[in-house]
Amino acid sequence: MRSLLFVPGDSEKKLAKALESGADALLLDLEDSVAASAKPRAREIVTAWLTAHKSLPVRPRLYVRVNPFDGGLTEADLDAVMAAGPDGIMLPKSLNGADVQHLGAKLAVREAERGLIDGATRIIAIATESARAIFGLSTYGGCSERLTGLAWGAEDLSADIGSDTYRLADGAYSGPYRLARDLTLFAAVAAEVAPIDSVFVNFRDDAGLRWECLAARRHGFTAKMAIHPGQVGVINEIFSPSADALARARAILAAFDAAPEAGVLSVNGEMIDLPHLKKARKLLRRDGEA
After folding, report:
1. CA geometry: angle at 220 spanning 1 and 189, to 5°?
2. How far is CA 160 from CA 91, 133, 139, 173, 174, in A?
3. CB of 148 closer than 8 Å to CB of 193
4. CA dist., res. 114 & res. 79, Å (int)
5. Residues 103, 123: contact at Cβ < 8 Å?
6. Sign of the four-CA dihedral 194, 198, 200, 203
7. pLDDT in tens, 163-182
8. pLDDT over threshold 70, residue 290
């Protein structure tokens, strides 16, 4: 997955438009974008929409962002949407790996009750939405086979901390938020799941989005969340491996396949060693080749 597009769960119009956005995954939202009074209706809309579109031969992955555990709404969200068998659940305001395990247990019960394949429902956790959550980032490794990605977010973290802003005058993240972003990257890689960059909220600023995507890819993120369909094209472009990068990775693999006992090789005039091989394999796995 390169692009993950949030879609308000109470808007049938936006759900229909999102399906044509080109996003790799849709995050059908029952949390922040839905008013409290609209949540029961949003559950009905999302469940019906999933039921109608889950069997399409070509479609994005369909995840539902449920409400957090501390709000008392998670059970009702899961009771509704699991009847339609979503591809995954996004857990907001996750504190640690134990929260993912807790969600996994709830999913296992509902999969069994509804005749779904055990373990089929994946989990993406948003892992930085409170100061407390920062200290749980080291606990996601091995917490659940369902976990497929870790994302980070600044909005709720900023509210929890009480900071004036989370960006500097030039648009870059300020210190605490750079730290949260970096730690999420490390935590995801350590847990062997996808590191997912946060949303870029100014959906009219294409240049700013492009700059932020390029920085995220440079640092090691493999995907980014979006809040508007117009952001998807830029995200997909930047997080897709280039033809040159794929060709170089294939050449590195071929060289080591031909000399499996070698520690250092020359590929196209460049000295290549085992860290290069590891990086090449990761890139090709992302592209479905290894």
Report:
1. 80
2. 18, 11, 21, 16, 15
3. yes
4. 10
5. yes
6. positive
7. 999 999 998 999 999 999 99
8. no
In 186-228, which ranges are E strands?
Answer: 194-197, 223-226
DSSP summary character for residue 245:
H
* This prediction's pTM: 0.89
| pLDDT category of residue 229 using cuts at 50, 70 and 90 | very high
Instruction: Kindly report, residue by residue over 205-216, the tens digit of the pLDDT.
Output: 999 999 999 999
Helices 97-114 and 74-81 cross at an angle (nearest 10°) of 40
| Dihedral sign of CA atoms 132, 228, 239, 290 in order | positive
* pLDDT surpasses 90 at 246: no
Give the position of tokens 């995050």: 27
Domains, the chain, ordered by start = 3-239 (3.20.20.60), 243-286 (no CATH)
Q: Which residues contact 28 (CB under 8 A, 6 or more apart)?
A: 7, 9, 15, 46, 49, 50, 62, 63, 64, 65, 81, 86
231 φ/ψ angles, rounded to the nearest 5 degrees: -85, -15
Alpha helices in 6-73 (DSSP H): 12-18, 39-53
Contact criterion met (CB below 8 Å) for 101 and 140: no
Angle at 15 between CA 9 and CA 16, to 5 degrees: 160
